[in-house]
Amino acid sequence: MRTTPQLAIVLTLIATFLWGSNFQVTKFALTSLPPWTASVERFFYAVICIFIFLAWKEGIRSKVLKQNWWAFIVLGAIGVAGFNGAFFVGLQSSNPVTAALIVATTPISANILEAIINRRLPGLMRVVGMAISLLGVALVITNGELIWGGAVQVVAGDIIIFMGSLGWSIYTVGTRVFVKNATPLATTSWTMFFGAIILVFIAIFVESPVTALSSATFESHLACLYIGIGGSTVAYLFWNMGVAIRGAGKMAVFFNFVPIFALIIQIMRGNIPSLPQMIGVVITIVGVFLGQGILGDVRFMIIDKNKN
Q1: pLDDT digits over 16-43, tens only?
Q2: I need a surface site. Which of 3, 157, 174, 306 has the fewest CB within 10 A?
Q3: 153-195 confidence digits (pLDDT tens)
Q4: CB-based contacts of 30, cutoff 8 Å, min separation 6
């Protein structure tokens, strides 16, 4: 498969769609499972699937682990255990609308972090595109209330989710900066593995995972299976492939599509969005395209075609 910028965009969009679907599916998982235990079951399936694929596609190479074991542990703790744990725990007290808006700030922190590491500022159009896409996300997830004067109260859950979003920014940049001589598949596999181990220890410490798993409903287990395979294995792999092709800063802005895809799934379930939300969808897509330079590429293609 040829690793082109267009392929990176497609893979990243698929990853964000799968993450967007997790919002609905997670509700079924949490009906009879506590948050940390649900995360453990999710990544239990994910780790099994990703290592089967790794063994078939590339083989499990001890040299990659020896060279990057510390990076895999740290990134697994921050980007897998930290981000997902913070999301599930934070939603216990945070408003879902506020939580979605906080998570949508992840591209900004990722670009800032990458700029600091590379000692250069992001391009003006990328900054403008991120700002426009965040405006669109704010319209979508708040139904226009935040833009038109609605107030957002900061609670403990908001702070937890914000810390989780910072963890995902570090993971996104760190897989490209700190991991050496490892493919996206190997990076995904090992960070998931160590992140899952850390989740197990946390679940044992704060919950009773064995009891919770044995008493959970079939629907909750089925939801964890879907999240583990689609919303974890495939999504993480495609995300890391996109980052490897185009870079963390350019790809991070696509994280804004997560609440958009969640909204689309709600529409498919019969919940029609309001006019401010529809406007927000359009603004978000325009902002992402602008930040990626896609609109500029289309403009130059049109100019070249007219010249010919």
Answers
A1: 899 888 877 877 888 899 999 999 999 9
A2: 306
A3: 556 777 888 888 889 889 988 988 899 999 888 998 999 999 9
A4: 38, 88, 220
**Joined tokens for residue 49:** 């699937």
Give residue 70's Cα distance to chain centre.
Answer: 22
Structure tokens at 184: 């996206």
Give the pLDDT confidence score for residue 304 in this predicted structure: 45
Q: Give the angle 163-166-168 at the CA atoms, nearest 5°.
A: 115
- Signed CA dihedral, 122, 125, 131, 136: sign only: negative
> What are the residue ranges in the chain where pLDDT is below 50?
297-308
Q: Measure the CA–CA gap between 57 and 39, rounded to whole angstroms.
A: 26
Beta-carbon contacts of residue 121 (< 8 Å; ≥ 6 apart): 115
If DSSP states are collapsed to H, E and C, what string results for 150-185?
Answer: CCCCCCHHHHHHHHHHHHHHHHHHHHHHCCCCCCHH
The model's pTM:
0.76
Q: What one-character-per-residue DSSP string does the chain give?
A: ----HHHHHHHHHHHHHHHHHHHHHHHHHTTTS-HHHHHHHHHHHHHHHHHHHHHHHT---HHHHHHHHHHHHHHIIIIIIIHHHHHHHHTTTS-HHHHHHHHTTHHHHHHHHHHHHHT-PPPHHHHHHHHHHHHHHHHHHHTTTTTTT------HHHHHHHHHHHHHHHHHHHHHHT--S--HHHHHHHHHHHHHHHHHHHHHHHS-HHHHHHHS-HHHHHHHHHHHIIIIIIHHHHHHHHHHHH-HHHHHGGGGHHHHHHHHHHHHTT-PPPHHHHHHHHHHHHHHHHHHTHHHHHHHHHHHHHH-
Identify whether the C-beta of residue 212 lies closer than 8 Å to the C-beta of residue 78. Answer: no
